[in-house]
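Last lecture ended with a question: if I hand you only a sequence, what can you say about the shape of the protein? Today we answer it with a concrete record. The protein is THUMP domain-containing protein. Below, first the input exactly as provided, then the predicted structure, then a couple of comments.
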Amino acid sequence: MANLQPTDFTEATRFAMTATTLAGVEPQLADELKALGATQIEIGRRVVTFEGDQQLLYKANYSLRTALRILKPILQFRATDYDALYERFVKFNWHLLLPLEGRFFIDTAIFSEHFTNSRYALYRLKDAIRDFDAASSHPRNVEACKERRCDLCLHLHISGDRVVLSLDSSGESLHHRGYRAAYNEAPLNEVLAAAILLKAGYDGSQPLMDPMCGSGTFLIEGAMIASHTPAGRFRPDFNFKHWQDFDASLWSEVRAEAESHIIPIEKTIWGSDRNFKAVGIAGANAARAGFKSQIQLDQIDIVNVAAPDEPTLLVLNPPYGKRIGHENLEQLYRNIGSVLKHQFGGCEAWVLASPPELLTLLGLKQKHRETLFNGELQCELRSYELFEGKHKAWKADKAENRAKRSIPTDSRTLSPFTPAPNSEAQPRRKRERSRFIDGHPLPDAKSYERPRGYRQEIQVFGSDVNTKSQRRREPEQKRKRKE
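The predicted structure:
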């Protein structure tokens, strides 16, 4: 991307954008962007870049489940010191973006040996904006603020000597859906919950269960996926709505189109928790999201959960012993593994926990594993295909069923080396080895035989070890005495 000028981002119909996300969630975000019609999609480390127009920018903020922010780059250049930053920023026409008495917020992400003080880089950008406004013929008295609810959110990213300044079209992080009436202890990030459900292949076509639901994040995100509800439907605000080029009619069209795809939930979504307060919080959140009647909640311990009537997808985020304690964490995970094995045969379970040693206590054979981050805490996500009985027997039955499905029923599909079903099997004829190479007879193998050498008798002194030849020479009287 070349150095961007003010006319580039104000007049271009299509432009580059960057969607930020959590580590390990990039493939799911790329799939979502492709479904929305984005082009030039490239996956990076915790980001996915793409191209689109203003309508796609609105759609991405309103519909994406696995994105944290949607950034629109406006300046890119190279610099190696703070003065070069200031000189480049002060030349930018900030009146194109800021209204009269406008307020702006700056966020930074700096990974550079040239700029070791991220706060000072932020101050230089802030000074450049203020100095430009003060030096203009019609100052607008713009001010910096400490919160994202403002007229303009800026994101400064520096990697090495590469500087990229972007408009943050989201404002508050997109994981703030707007449906939380209350929080439980250590709530699960909404983006992470949605990503796990998408990794598990959940689309609402099968029942969903969370027997340790907490504040109900898995259940509500699952209900939104099953009903095709846009992820940002309950958000009160997006920062792009404060931009000077905001198109209210286009925004209404984007919302109307997305909401026209909402469908009823067909399969059961059920959750439970042993904590009465957590069940109440989950119910309040579900009601605020509009799923009060679609999500079933019960206060019950996981060890007492009844088996479902049909194959179900289970998602669990048990306590780690970090922010939420437990009287016996190891026994808890053993109990979870026992319940999953004996109560949920034929189902599939996805469990997120930290450290991985806790998941080992489940005593189940994993099908999939990967590293994810729940906030700053490194976790591991594992999936389990649950079955009744022993793993070897289940694996043998699965292989047998696969073999039955692969047996051809029509002789036209048989291999040319396989006899037809009604034909008599011919005895296999032993293949004779050719005695000639290029018309010359092979030499007789007997000519290569070596004469056998004389057998040597070995006596190991100082030991009672005897060779076979010595045992053969035992006196005849001793052999008769033994008999």
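Comments.
1. The first helix runs from residue 6 to 11.
2. Confidence is low (pLDDT under 50) at residues 409-423, 445-473.
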